[in-house]
Amino acid sequence: MTTILHADMDAFYASVEQRDDPALRGRPVIVGGLGKRGVVCAASYEARRFGVRSALPISQARRLCPKAVFLSPRMSQYARVSAEVREIFYRFTPLVEPLSLDEAYLDCSGSLRLFGSARAIAEAIRAAIRSELSLPVSVGAGSGKLVAKIASARAKPDGLLLIDEHETDAFLRPLPVAEIWGVGPVTERRLHEFGIATIGQLADYDSARLERSLGSWATLLQGLARGEDLRSVEADRGRKSYGEENTFPDDAVDGELIDAMLLAHAETVARRLRHDGRKARTITIKWRTSGSAAQWRLSTRSHTLVDASDDGVVIARVAAQLWRAEPEHPPVRLLGVQVTNLDGDRPVQLGLFRCQEEIRNEALNKALDQIVARFGADAVRRGNTPQG
Question: How many Cβ atoms from other residues are within 10 Å of residue 90's Cβ?
Fold first, then answer.
């Protein structure tokens, strides 16, 4: 039997800030761009009581909750904590698919005999994250990704909800169709035109008629509505590539936030490369917009370096250049940086005449890695952001 867990850190950025500064605990905390056009990246549950949510303009958040503490995001710190969370996941299964810095799918099917049950695994994960990192996490479990993700949302905050396979149909049927993966406002409106408002109504609807309207997309939607979720957990531990990505709670339009995410992902990827003694030649950015089914297509752009690199500045600079080269920058739901075409399977021959800048950068990166390992990723940061 397939058992999928979806782990979702609660108000992740805000929770990290409250953990790192005890004076913020119990107070409304809002993390986001603080300029005139800034938006909320995360809001603590104390702030959410005032109606503050992700993607809300900062100006509106200030009006709703004027006594909140407003903080700029510390992406490098969140990336470091995210890596620590992921290492806890790997104790229980090698099949981990990160969706963003604060959530991931875990396929625990092969671990049930070792740990006893899905509930035992979920409880152990939650206990480890709470005791070692002092952070809350909500976990949902089911026979597929859709059920696990919906269950974790209903377990919030700081809870656990398991849906047994025989409970899947009863769990899904009363839920609104917007809960299904990929159903955005456009598809939801079209389904409502057919009188389909719930997942159960979608599951029961005439398949031929639905396919005439939605095409092949209808088959996938109805399968998910009936609990037929065949999507597997795509593990991120292969060594043919290294990548980091983030799924925003709401579409990201803030250029400063996108720049910060590209830099944070590049630095994290570079640090992992150096840890494993590897370098990469090809740098890829990927992004996904939301909306209609066609808009859910993943877009990628790549550039291959002449010389392989493990330098976060180099990776970030190329990522920024790739992003800025795009003629349009639509609102983004997912953003990631990946490196491939790796050296490291064999010893890399060093050039006889290496430039002084390269030698200085290697020494700097080594020093940064040592500082981060001892004091955390936010203990030191680069003087400026690489420009595209």
Answer: 13
Which of 17, 46, 97, 103 is an active site residue?
103
Alpha carbon distance 319, 325 (integer Å)? 10
**290 phi and psi angles, rounded to 5 deg:** -125, 170
Topology of the domain covering 173-225: DNA polymerase; domain 1 (1.10.150)
User: What is the reported pLDDT for 4?
Assistant: 95
Residue 103 is a catalytic residue: yes
Cα 83 to Cα 79, 98, 117, 228: the distances in Å are: 6, 10, 25, 31
The Cα-based distances of 221 to 3, 99, 203, 274 in angstroms read 21, 21, 8, 42
Cα dihedral 106→153→181→79 (10° resolution):
-60
CA 363/CA 371 separation, integer angstroms: 12
Q: Is the pLDDT of residue 158 over 70?
A: yes
Using pLDDT thresholds of 50, 70 and 90, give the confidence band for residue 131.
Answer: very high
Domain 1-159 of CATH type 3.30.70.270: yes
∠ CA(83), CA(79), CA(320), 5° rounding? 130
Dist. CA 168–CA 68, nearest whole Å: 40
pTM for the predicted model, two decimal places: 0.69
